[in-house]
Design brief:
Shape: globular
CATH topology of the largest domain: Aspartate Aminotransferase, domain 2
Number of helices: 15
Oligomer: single chain
Radius of gyration: 22 Å
Strand order of the largest sheet: 4-10-9-8-7-5-6
CATH architecture of the largest domain: 3-Layer(aba) Sandwich
Length: about 450
């Protein structure tokens, strides 16, 4: 391996970082991670930190899950790749489809379509939703509705149903026929409503109004994250997703649950939909399906959706969609091992316990630091703090404040994620009580350090 100086100097000269301005990457030396074990990272200078980001929401079992590593190595040795197009398949993906059907049985999901990751899964769900309506003879159902602040990946379809301008404006015009309603975001919403239950009802009324405006017979699906992730960890009131389910059912609209983040235990339940007591028509998954050890994803579909495709005799249900790596045997082997280990460890229980510990600790930090305007969490291991420059007026802190906190907390031994004014925490679901305390201690120290650098009213 090249030496440290070479790697730091050449980091951004030959490749562009995702979600970053190329000039910023050129002008700022990166944090080069060269090792990882358990829930800890080691950088090129030997500095060790607790990873409070969980890779990127995906390393639920930590970096030392030997059963997944062994499954990948064994599958590579036996058969590293073959296509699942048309008449060929592999044993690992057949077994995986069976195990996923068992895992998601309580969500009412019975069929899988395999992808290479989260953006692929969302794109697949959007395409299959349109096709579903065409097969049923309702070809006019082409529109999609989503939530403001929602995030659904970076493909053109996913970007089109995204509800955040940061992922849209530089790539427009995007897919036509995509509309958005206000998110149940208690801290900031157009209704100035601070009561979560009342806000949920107002957002549901907005959905009804949008359906009326567009015409129910033109809408293919409503897509939502059970807990909004990249938008700043926004959990809705428990009445919201069931309300969405009822409205969609009544109007013949499919409900797509984007669970790329929330599936496999993150919310303290095996799925975010199950957390709210809802059965979606389709579910997009990825990330934790292989613990981040192999790019892989799956779209799960209900029996009712599957029946429409499988009983078609017109030929309209022939699927003209797929990826070279759909059902990749190495990814399938990794997912099988990951699923077994995820269930053996019952990580959803630890996610619920450590999530409550983290959320409570963040609420205590809010009482101490005026930089914190809002704390969100309480539903498994996904929490966020929103930084402000004026507490009373809720003025968002400058982006640099979040980056300064990231640097300060990293020096204290914890890796966090700064996204605008939001600090997002999504650690591995095998986090210990001591690890959680370390995250809170580092945040406390980092906030104290940058308070002296920031003007907070």
């Amino acid at each position: 391996m090249k030496n440290s100086n070479f790697l730091k100097e050449n980091n951004a000269k030959h490749f562009w970082h995702p979600m970053a301005h190329p000039a910023e990457s050129l002008n700022n030396q990166p944090t080069i991670i060269t090792g990882a074990h358990g829930v800890r990272l080691v950088d090129i200078d030997g500095h060790e930190t607790v990873d409070a980001v969980g890779g990127l929401w995906n390393v639920n079992l930590g970096f030392s899950c030997e059963p997944i590593k062994a499954a990948i190595a064994q599958q590579l040795d036996r058969m590293p790749y073959y296509s699942t197009f048309r008449g060929t398949t592999n044993d690992a993906v057949i077994e995986l489809s069976y195990q996923l059907r068992e895992f998601f049985a309580d969500d009412g999901l019975e069929r899988a379509f395999f992808t290479s990751g989260g953006s692929d899964s969302v794109e697949t769900a959007l395409r299959l939703t349109r096709q579903y309506h065409k097969v049923r003879g309702e070809s006019g159902r082409t529109k999609f509705i989503g939530l403001q602040k929602g995030y659904h990946g970076t493909h053109f379809g996913g970007a089109s149903v995204n509800g955040n301008a940061n992922f849209r404006t530089q790539y427009e015009p995007l897919l036509s026929g995509c509309y958005h309603i206000p998110a149940p975001y208690t801290y900031r919403n157009p209704f100035n409503e601070s009561d979560p239950e009342k806000l949920a009802q107002l957002c549901l009324q907005s959905l009804e109004s949008e359906i009326q405006m567009q015409g129910a017979s033109t809408i293919a699906a409503f897509i939502m994250e059970p807990v909004l992730g990249a938008g700043g960890v926004i959990p809705p009131h428990h009445s919201f997703m069931p309300g969405v389910r009822e409205i969609c059912t009544r109007h013949g609209i499919l409900l797509i649950a984007d669970e790329v983040i929330t599936a496999f235990g993150r919310t303290g339940d095996w799925s975010g939909s199950r957390h709210w007591g809802v059965k979606p028509d389709m579910m997009a998954t990825a990330k934790a399906i292989t613990n981040g050890y192999f790019p892989f994803g799956a779209v799960m579909m209900s029996g009712a959706v599957a029946e429409v495709f499988e009983t078609d005799k017109s030929g309209a249900a022939s699927i003209g969609h797929g990826y070279t790596y759909s059902g990749h045997p190495v990814g399938a082997a990794a997912a099988l091992a990951c699923l077994e280990e995820t269930q053996r460890l019952q990580v959803q229980k630890n996610a619920a316990a450590r999530g409550q510990q983290l959320y409570k600790g963040l609420l205590e930090l809010k009482q101490k630091h005026r930089l914190i305007g809002d704390v969100r969490g309480g539903h498994g291991l996904m929490c966020a703090i929103e930084l402000v420059s004026d507490l009373e007026n809720k003025t968002p802190a400058d982006k640099q404040v979040g980056l300064d906190l990231l640097d300060a907390t990293y020096r204290e031994g914890v890796m966090i994620r700064a996204s605008g004014p939001n600090v997002i925490l999504s650690p591995a679901l095998v986090l210990t009580e001591e690890d959680t305390d370390q995250i809170l201690t580092a945040l406390d120290a980092g906030l104290s350090e940058i308070t002296s650098m920031s003007v907070v009213s």
